[in-house]
Specification:
Layout lengths: L1 H38 L58 E3 L13 E3 H18 L2 E6 L4 H9 L20 E7 L5 E3 L5 H9 L5 E2 L6 H4 L7 E4 L2 H10 L3 H19 L1
Bound molecules: zinc ion.
């Protein structure tokens, strides 16, 4: 009797161990499948939902070169310009297409941070390429910041050079993200001008339509240089800035000087 019970116990134990092994094996297979599906990502082709305007020559003047025209003013444009004296139209602006960032290749939980959908998808793709290239992961330190939070930073004594005026931060557009790097060994590396991670992002982030808008300091951009900062611009403008090796604020200065020429010509 005892030996039969003992045998039953053994059979149950063996069954349990077998299930554990099979279960773990299944888990590993599922994990591998997840990774495998990320190893050969298809090129990301996204519909452009930004508010590009189509240039319509009026006949009043003929520009020497017709360039894409962007919408720098509407809060929900990917090309909205914020800077000194250039504020959000609505300080409480919240876009309709917000999503949590969904990536398995950031060092911290990406879903705690949100961006507008197109920016979030492009960022997740970039994070995979970054990990694949360096075997290190991007760490998100900040994405969206509300006007209240921005106000609290200023009240705590953060200078205007370091912290943008309320309504003038690209983080309020839900298009900006601050990044660092965690190496394979778990070491935190800040993005700094000249280091290989920063250099990779400077060379490649525009492939995913991101741009470091705060990279040339107060004199040029009105903000202290912020190496960790990347802002989503949409395809055409990101590529144009990369091709010309200029920042968004330099581009805007160039636009306004062209505007002066245009006005002068029509007088
Ligand atoms: Zn930032």
């Amino acid at each position: 009797m005892i030996s039969r019970q003992y045998r039953s116990f053994h059979i149950l134990t063996l069954l349990f161990i077998s299930l554990m092994i099979l279960g773990w094996g299944g888990f590993v297979v599922v994990e591998d499948r997840v990774v495998a599906s990320q190893e050969s990502p298809a090129p990301v082709v996204l519909p452009i939902q930004s508010t590009f305007l189509t240039y319509q020559p009026t006949g009043d003047y003929l520009p020497m070169q017709i360039q894409p025209t962007y919408d720098f003013d509407e809060d929900d444009s990917f090309q909205k310009y914020l800077g000194n004296g250039q504020l959000l139209n609505n300080n409480e602006y919240v876009p309709e297409d917000l999503v949590p960032i969904d990536s398995n290749f950031t060092a911290n939980a990406s879903k705690r941070f949100s961006l507008r959908q197109e920016a979030a998808t492009q960022f997740a793709d970039m994070a995979w390429y970054f990990w694949n290239h360096f075997n290190a992961k991007l760490m998100i330190s900040s994405a969206y910041r509300s006007s209240t939070f921005q106000q609290s930073l200023l009240k705590k004594g953060c200078s205007r050079a370091r912290c943008a005026q309320v309504g003038s931060s690209e983080h309020q557009l839900w298009l900006a993200i601050d990044l660092g790097v965690i190496t394979k060994g778990g070491k935190y590396i800040a993005l700094n001008k000249g280091n290989l991670y920063y250099q990779w992002l400077i060379e490649h982030a525009s492939d995913w339509w991101f741009h470091n808008s705060y990279q040339k300091g107060i004199e040029v951009g009105g903000q202290m240089a912020e190496w960790r900062h990347r802002r989503y611009m949409g395809e055409d403008l990101a590529k144009e800035l990369q091709d010309k090796q200029i920042t968004f604020s330099e581009y805007m200065k160039d636009q306004s000087s062209q505007q002066v020429v245009k006005t002068t010509n029509t007088l």
